[in-house]
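One chain shown below:
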Amino acid sequence: RSDFHPQLVVIQLGEHEESQEGAAFMQESCDKLLGSLRDVVPEADVLCSGVWLPGDTNGGHDGYAAGWGADIENAMRTSCLKYGIPFASVREFALDPSCRGSGTNAGVKWHPNDKGMEGYARVLFAAYKRAKAFGKMSSLALPEAQEVNLGGGIGAAYRLGVERLRQPPYD
C-alpha cells in the first residue's frame, strides 16, 4: 500500500510454529521476513521480541534451554543480528509463573498477564532506547531486565516507556 508508512514495527512470533518444518526452515523464514520487511518499510524502526515459552526454572521446565523453543528463539536472534534489528528476549518473564495465569481457561492462562506484558514493554522499550542512543536501530546485547513493579499493568508500563522515550534525545 502506498499509504503504509509506519514509524515503528514490532515483530513477535513463534508460539504457533510447527516443529516438523525444522530449525533450518525456521531460520530461513525469519531471514525472509526480516529481509523483506526492510524492503517494504525501509524508513521504519523495527524491533523483535523473543518467543513466549511459559515454564518454571524452579520446576525444571525451560523450553529455551534446548529443543524447538530454543530453535525459534535462536532463529529470531540470528536473523535480527543479520539485519541489524534489535532483539529483546522475554525469556525471564515467560519462565516466571507470576507473569501468566489470568483467567479460567488453560489457553488464556498460558498467555502473559499484566506482569508478563509489563515485561514485554520493559525489554522492548529498553531495546528501542538503547538502539536510538547509538544513533541507529541495530542489534545490541541487552542486559537482563530488572524487576520493576509499576502497579498499573501494561498501561503503566506503556506510559513509563513513552515518558522515557520523550526524554532527550528521543522526543
In short: The chain has six helices and three strands. Confidence is low (pLDDT under 50) at residues 138-171.
